[in-house]
Design a protein that fits this description.
By secondary structure, the protein is of the alpha+beta class. Helices cover 27% and strands 42% of the residues. The chain is built from 3 helices and 6 strands, in the order βββαβαββα. It is globular, with a radius of gyration of 15 Å.
């Protein structure tokens, strides 16, 4: 659960954590439209990824987003996730199977972490 100004602002979930040779997880999120565009979710995803790559010891994070969700795609693109796949009729949403674009990031893609990358971008 994410809060902003003491109110519910959204949710971020780290799911499907796999250990062993893969050491990966998926991140899903939503943000209240009243606070969208303020960098809240971008910061939350950066914090979650840094935690997953640091203390949790994961190697890969994937985020799957519907193609028409431009705001959500901006979040991962801003953080340096690369587009890797297109899933046709991937998830049942609102009674129909919807396509998704798969984005991914590995620990090698951000050796100093995503929060430090955001801070550096904000300073420039």
């Amino acid at each position: 659960m994410l809060t902003f100004d003491d109110a519910l602002a959204g949710q971020l979930t780290v799911a499907n954590v796999v250990r062993g040779a893969l050491r990966s997880a998926q991140i899903g999120y939503w943000v209240d439209q009243n606070v969208a565009g303020q960098g809240i979710m971008t910061t939350a995803v950066a914090l979650a990824v840094d935690h997953c790559f640091g203390p949790v010891g994961l190697h890969r994070i994937q985020v799957d987003i519907r193609p028409e969700n431009a705001a959500s795609r901006r979040v991962v693109e801003k953080l340096g996730f690369r587009e890797e796949s297109y899933f046709v009729r991937y998830l049942d949403i609102d009674g129909a199977f919807r396509d998704h674009i798969g984005y991914a990031l590995t620990v090698e893609d951000c050796p100093r972490g995503l929060v430090s990358r955001l801070a550096a971008d904000a300073g420039s």
